[in-house]
């Protein structure tokens, strides 16, 4: 709408009105999405039928319009859905996926093509929503746990298998676009940092939940060099927690590499995650809770990192640990030597 106004030569006053309408539309749609999200978090899958009936067609129409427009390279501004509408459709569809159980998995096939296309959008906000959505689709389309049993589990497994087929065809393309976001020159600016963080998290989720569709042992060493997440603190807490869970679980070999080849990069990434973040405006934190809200990891993840480091020292040959340690800079070494208990006393 803003581009259309500029092209049609509206004067300054009319252009200002368009700006106000854009801002109003964005605020309204955000309020609707947040309200529905709150209800879904409270009532979970029991609301799926009502939400699907109320918003399902709207979401489908918006994402269908977006994918058709991109696919056909249509240039008409009047045919362009607003950024706010696309972001609304993505966020609401993702909320449904995250909270409504197996019934909601049909939204993976609805959303995914448009999400992947939007990873290349000029809008950082839309890229951020798209990257987050791709990560959710990776997680929700993960192959079911073979240890599950019972009729309900079998039905859930069947739903996941059906939903996962769409992700399989787009995973490679999505990974390429996500790494384009991560490596872009402006990736660490205030405008783009949130999108970059969600792209990093999405790549990690694809490696974690859909290793059948990628080569985690090749992707993760590169991903480590771009860590940590710094702008979206909520996503940083989640992504860093998941990475540490991989390091301390059955997937550790995928992150650490053959013969511990990735250990220096792992230690560097962990060190950067736990470097204490200062309070804003050089003020001090008023409480432990406020301190942890501003850190790149939560307290539990930091304690898990400490345990992981102690485990490495106890189980690895001293020469391997020493070689990795020597590749860290002074600040990284200092960060890894500070105990969690000493941070706020």
Automatic annotation (TrEMBL):
Name the UniProt record assigns to this protein: HEAT repeat-containing protein 1
Ranges annotated as spanning the membrane: none
Gene3D superfamilies given in the database record: Leucine-rich Repeat Variant (1.25.10.10)
Localization, UniProt: Cytoplasm
A GO cellular component annotation in the UniProt record: cytoplasm
Lineage of producing organism: Eukaryota, Sar, Stramenopiles, Ochrophyta, Raphidophyceae
Domain of life: Eukaryota
Cited PANTHER family: IMPORTIN BETA (PTHR10527)
Keywords: Cytoplasm, Protein transport, Repeat, Transport
GO annotation, biological process: protein import into nucleus
């Amino acid at each position: 709408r803003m581009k259309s106004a500029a092209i049609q030569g509206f004067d300054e006053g009319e252009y200002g009105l368009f700006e106000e309408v854009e801002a109003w539309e964005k605020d309204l749609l955000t309020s609707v999405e947040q309200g529905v999200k709150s209800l879904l978090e409270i009532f979970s899958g029991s609301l799926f039928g009502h939400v699907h009936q109320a918003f399902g067609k709207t979401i489908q129409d918006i994402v269908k319009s977006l994918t058709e427009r991109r696919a056909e390279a249509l240039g008409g501004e009047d045919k362009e859905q607003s950024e706010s509408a696309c972001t609304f459709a993505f966020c609401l569809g993702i909320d449904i996926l995250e909270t409504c159980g197996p019934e909601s998995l049909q939204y993976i096939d609805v959303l995914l093509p448009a999400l992947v296309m939007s990873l290349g959008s000029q809008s950082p906000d839309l890229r951020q929503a798209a990257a987050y959505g791709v990560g959710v689709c990776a997680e929700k389309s993960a192959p079911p746990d073979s240890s599950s049993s019972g009729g309900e589990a079998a039905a859930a497994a069947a739903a996941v298998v059906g939903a996962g087929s769409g992700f399989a065809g787009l995973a490679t393309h999505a990974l390429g676009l996500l790494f384009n976001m991560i490596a872009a020159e402006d990736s660490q600016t205030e405008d783009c940092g949130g999108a970059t963080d969600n792209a990093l998290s999405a790549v990690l989720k694809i490696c974690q939940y859909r290793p059948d569709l990628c080569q985690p042992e090749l992707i993760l060493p590169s991903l480590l060099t771009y860590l940590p997440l710094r702008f979206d603190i909520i996503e940083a807490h989640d992504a860093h927690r998941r990475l540490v869970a991989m390091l301390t679980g059955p997937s550790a070999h995928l992150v650490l590499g053959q013969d511990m080849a990735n250990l220096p990069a792992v230690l560097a990434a962990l060190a950067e995650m736990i470097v204490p973040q200062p309070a804003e405006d050089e003020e001090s934190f008023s409480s432990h809770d406020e301190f942890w809200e501003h850190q790149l990891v939560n307290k539990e993840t930091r304690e898990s990192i400490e345990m992981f480091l102690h485990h490495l020292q106890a189980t690895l040959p001293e020469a391997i640990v020493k070689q990795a340690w020597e590749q860290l800079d002074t600040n990284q070494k200092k960060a890894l030597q500070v105990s969690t208990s000493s941070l706020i006393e």
